[in-house]
Amino acid sequence: MTTRRPPAIDDESLVAALRLAAGKDPVPAHVLSASRAAFGLRVPGASTAIPVSTPAPAGVRSAEGARLLRFSAAGLVVELEIVPVDGLVDLAGQVSPLPEAGTTVEVRTPHLTASRELSATGQFAVTGLPPGWFSVVCRRPGHGPVVTSWTRIRP
Fold it and tell me: What is the number of domains present in the chain?
């Protein structure tokens, strides 16, 4: 009966394996850059608005066209309509209950932020957004910010 032995490992391979196991290999530059960018997108002290199911409007037969989303947190509801237009995305929204004067929203992507002051009816719009990830931050005077969870939009 013969006993099988694992192949011999040279010293360089052993040291490389130990470095990997110990986490001593340097983190790639693109990973560090992406993690710093993600950290910069946080909103300290914000309440996170989570998605709430929205019933499809009567008579809707397909998922093409506008997409409706609703988020809720801290007594605030953010409703969004996402419309694809020529490879880009238009976003219209409404915040309820009716916000105080001076309430603003920021529609954020990893690469840009568009700020809007809400209308008297709590509405806002941002056009020409690139497809990809977005989040909305609502800032009300005298209240902490409310931020929607990150959601992916496609044209």
Answer: 2
